[in-house]
Predict the structure.
Amino acid sequence: MAGKSDTWEQGLIDLLFKNVDFTEVGDSGGLLGSASAGNLYFSLHTADPTDAGDQTSSEIGYTSYARVAVARGAGFTRTGSSVSPAAAVTFPTGTGGSGTATHFGVGTAASGAGKLLYAGAITPNIVCGDGVTPELTTATAITED
């Protein structure tokens, strides 16, 4: 299996998360960022949503849960071939229900199926429910390698 170069990994992360043009790929302009950066949406999952999943796969369902929008660009920090949220990602406080978040996802939609771009394990797991405000810290990393 062939790996990706650091240049490719960093360019892809910058394009997807920072909305920075990925120059020298494709035509002379490269792969261009969006005219309006928009958001990516963090989600919580009770199991690994898997490579075949979408944003709804094993998505947690405590009362008041909603995905959290993070702005492409300033909302993320890249270090080498890893990217992390620039600030904590704080989900709505539960008003009922329960579930244990074992994985997080990053996708394209505020609700519904959406494209799941990345998913990863949460350590330690977050037990969600009434009065609990789940949070992913800035140490939550997505690594291309």
Summary: The first helix runs from residue 6 to 18. The radius of gyration is 16 Å.
